[in-house]
Specification:
354 residues; alpha/beta; Aspartate Aminotransferase, domain 2; Aspartate Aminotransferase, domain 1; seven-stranded mixed beta sheet; 11 strands
Length: 354
């Protein structure tokens, strides 16, 4: 498929082939897991961040991350971020912690200078959360997820892998993986295969113009969250306490990642971002959080803030008419969601994978 001539819906529902084209990070030192939360547990344990230790997090974060911290007995602390999710204050003002999480939000490289200064001052471990940034690089050409002591990947959020596929990169510490002992069961191999086959079929149907992208979006569910705050925090407290477990074979994931056409996927995501920027320009009151991408950046979603309900409704209408969906992100932790600035409660995004 020619990504330049494709409609938004066709771009959204397209899938890269397995021809091995394009650049990709070296994953030979990455250990595979089903979910990034499992990888984070292993990374924390390998770096001796366990019972009684502290982990410093941005106050704009998905609450699921807390489950890994609680699983090892550590305590979360928080620092403030600005409207572009960068540290809002000098790292000298951050609370002391044993580890600090630097997140590449939406696949955009986080500037690590404040984190390196913090590490130099108190010796904290830097964990680069790159769940959103597989295939993305910073201005120096460094692959996101490999720039710190520990790096997290969630490949399943960038490449269709049947709902599983994550990785842990450790720069220096020896791997000492110990699976979390509880509670939620991961999908079975049969479920993973069934999900993958269904998406292959639906993608083929869209590209062949047998069904419309809008129909499939309607079938799958157009929106993950609603405009109603009471429906936003859909996860129970369990999501902050429980790490998924279960026996799932993930050894095949590295083989798929080595073969996937990253050249196509990189172009697809960058074109989607550009088209959605253009679409948002026609909606009064819509402010993209990023309007331009670095040359090596591969975005995870198109993120924006609406000025009011009318702007959000109009953007929603245009997005869904193209066959795409809209979500509110993230599902914030209970500890911070009542205290953070209102701009952090008004972040909406168009995912680039379904």
């Amino acid at each position: 498929m020619n990504v330049t001539n494709a409609t938004l819906g066709q771009l959204y529902f397209s899938r890269p082939s397995l021809n091995g084209k394009g650049p990709r990070p070296d994953l030979s030192n990455v250990t595979m897991f089903a979910y990034a939360r499992q990888a984070l547990v292993a990374g924390l344990k390998s770096c001796n961040i366990t019972e009684g230790k502290t982990v410093l997090l941005p106050n704009f974060i998905c609450r699921d991350v807390l489950s890994a911290i609680h699983a090892v007995g550590a305590k979360p602390l928080y620092f403030d971020v600005n409207e572009r999710f960068e540290p809002a204050s000098d790292s000298k003002n951050w609370p002391d912690a044993d580890a600090v999480l630097a997140i590449n939000f939406f696949g955009i490289p986080q500037d690590l200078r404040s984190f390196l200064e913090y590490q130099s001052r108190i010796g904290a471990l830097i964990i680069e959360d790159n769940a959103h940034g597989f295939l993305s690089r910073d201005e120096a050409g460094l692959w996101l997820g490999t720039r710190a002591d520990c790096g997290l990947f969630s490949f399943r959020k960038s490449i269709q892998l049947g709902g599983i596929g994550a990785g842990l990169y450790l720069k220096n510490a020896p791997m000492n993986v110990s699976e979390p002992a509880k509670e939620i069961t991961s999908p079975s191999s049969a479920q993973v295969l069934a999900a993958g086959l269904l998406k292959v079929a639906l993608s083929w149907a869209v590209q062949s113009q047998l069904v419309s992208p809008k129909w499939i979006s309607s079938y799958l569910g157009k929106k993950r969250y609603t405009n109603d705050d009471s429906d936003w925090f859909t996860n129970t407290a369990e999501s902050e306490e429980t790490v998924p477990s279960g026996e799932v074979n993930v050894h095949w994931v590295s083989g798929i990642l080595a073969k996937v056409d990253t050249e196509f996927e990189i172009n697809r995501r960058r074109v989607l971002f550009e088209r959605l920027c253009e679409l948002s320009n026609g909606v009064s009151g819509i402010s993209p959080i990023w309007k331009n991408l670095g040359a090596l950046v591969v975005p995870y979603m198109f993120a924006f803030r609406p000025a009011d309900a009318n702007a959000l409704n109009e953007m929603t209408k245009r997005i869904t008419n193209e066959g795409l969906r809209l979500i509110r992100w993230p599902d914030l932790p209970r500890m911070v969601r009542n205290d953070i600035p209102s701009i952090h409660k008004n972040v909406w995004a168009v995912p680039f994978m379904w």
